[in-house]
From TrEMBL:
Keywords: Amino-acid biosynthesis, Dioxygenase, Iron, Metal-binding, Methionine biosynthesis, Nickel, Oxidoreductase. It is an enzyme of class 1 (oxidoreductase). This is Acireductone dioxygenase. GO terms for biological process: L-methionine salvage from methylthioadenosine; L-methionine salvage from S-adenosylmethionine.
Amino acid sequence: MSTLYVYNDKDAGQADLTTEDQNEIARILGRKGIQFEQWEANFPITADSTADDILNAYADSIEKLQQEGGYQTADVINMTPNHPDKIALRNKFLNEHTHSEDEVRFFVKGDGVFYLHLDDGVYAVRCCKNDLISVPANTRHWFDMGDSPNFTAVRLFTNPDGWVANFTGEKIADEFPRYEALAK
């Protein structure tokens, strides 16, 4: 289930707030400029599903997002426990970074945790199937998919070449609970 943990950025020991209420999550994140919505991921994903199958299944929703946000392209990321690059990809995005464009994800299977470093807080959002999250450009954040990732998400991009991570050099991500602690 989708969950929001709100920490003071100086105290990773205990979340000041934890909620699984989808409306409350959307409201709290919305006050910080983060879009969080519930969509319906009803296309059955199997081992034989291709990226084109998934993009075609959600074509209307993707087109709507593209028109609203000026996104030019969409693709599908599919992470499995057997993905050959899972360790390298996890380690890369466990470091705080920003992007020069929005980071938009619609989870159609599985889950992952976005950590948003906003003002003096860290907002850890466990995103699950049906969740749409849009992290605005230049927002400090990191992402954890765990050591046995299992999710599929539609990603939208403004830049056809995809986004580039600009690492902040801050070690804050090392202080906060990882995916395994939050996705119980």
